[in-house]
Amino acid sequence: MSTTAELRTITHWIAGKPAESAGDRYGDVYDPAIGRVAARVALASPQDVDRAVAAAKAAFPAWRDTSLAKRVEIMFAFRELLRRHADEFAHLIASEHGKPPSDAAGEIARGLEVVELACALPLMLKGEFSEQVSRNIDVHSLHQPLGVCAGITPFNFPAMVPLWMFPVALACGNTFVLKPSERDPSASLLLARVLKEAGLPDGVFNVVHGDKAAVDALLDHTDVAAVSFVGSTPIARYIYARGAAAGKRVQALGGAKNHLVAMPDADLGAVADALTSSAFGSTGQRCMAISAAVAVGDVGDRLVPALRERMAKLRVGPATDPQAELGPLVSKDAKARVEGLIAQGLAEGATLVVDGRAIRISGHEGGFFVGPTLFDHVTPSMEIYRQEIFGPVLVVLRVGSLDDAIALIDHNAYGNGAAIFTNDGPSARYFERNAGAGMIGVNVPIPVPVGSYSFGGWKNSLFGDQHVYGPEGFRFYTQSKVITSRWSEIEHPGVNLRFPGGQS
User: Fold this and answer.
1) Residues 223, 353: one domain?
2) CA distances from 220 to 13, 224, 315, 346 (A)
3) Do residues 247 and 344 both lie within one domain?
4) Catalytic: 287?
5) Residue 395 sits in a domain of what CATH number?
6) What tens digit of pLDDT does each residue of 36-82 get?
7) pLDDT digits over 13-38, tens only?
8) What pTM, to 2 d.p., does this model score?
9) At 441, which helix (H) or strand (E)?
């Protein structure tokens, strides 16, 4: 076992270079496959946050005035460097998060979509112009940057979720301070180094690691104009309330309980494949994971055996196992919480079809592993349905009709995503229009939008008015300004006390 002196220390990134912490607080970064500390990460003090925000504030005027053409050049260079470093990102994420490198590589692929959207910034930042709205008067609008923006991001996608935020913020002319999860912080520093290599000026992008002290310092800081957050619903609500109270623009994405409705006419094999993939990918640690299967009519009798058959073939193991499809959970606490909810589901009367608690991985007995788990005959009152488990647990609920399935979705506290599998067009269209979630899939289990659309949910899955990336992302990171101008040969139009309006 390594001593503290031998552990690698993960530092902040401020003003274009690694920065030591002003305090002496550190957190442990685990290798979740073996359950041992692999590194330590500096936990920012308010003074560290002040330094990062000050660097971003100092860099803002020059970055705001940088031409769109130059910003595009840097974004294109960043895109190519991300592609070049994709394998390095994947293995770095796998070592701290635990997901297989093949899964981690998907983060970069999805993040690249948003970078590519940011490369279209001249189009996305265009204003409007109206000529001769009144005699010799024209009106036009501008979209201008806010200033210093902050991102607070979760452990489950240490590269992708930051990539949902800062490329759009930077493209709009803002500067950025990222506070990533302290559980898997190294990917954020690699992002910072790649941005610098792409030509981004020092201070435009900064990273501070930390816990609640760093979060609160960002939320309270008078020089931070906007905050983006992805995480659990209780923290999202807290971020939104505290940030908005401080006068900031806030988008806070919370938890989810995503449903997949299986209609009797759907292809059973396609449904079982989709549920297995979407429920257990990344060990269920996805805000868009399907964690509730809604079987309409008698389809549940056929679906549950098909799921059990597929789950038996899944390989659980460390990221170093090239055949592994599921890795460990991120922490000991996460493992204990998931196992506790499985026990609670049994106590509440659900049928435990597959139990993942007894899994053991040879040579990794200390790892935070929980295997794929399946419950049947779950009811809406059970905690395994009500809570976002954030682990490899799929629950099956049975309903009599499509309307019953939609009512179930609508009464759930969350509204991130929902999917339907059917071969009937009218049923699909009815579901699209009536299901209460912000992202809908039709024969698509994880309906995460491409970069040119925006990502966000309803109800307790989102606090704030704007979703991330896509057109709404550009609106979130800019403020509009409308200019009304008169250029007339008449120098003195005279006094007119009427309220200004359309005049011929």
Assistant:
1) no
2) 21, 8, 45, 44
3) no
4) yes
5) 3.40.309.10
6) 999 999 999 999 999 999 999 999 999 999 999 999 999 999 999 99
7) 999 999 999 889 999 999 999 999 99
8) 0.94
9) strand 439-442
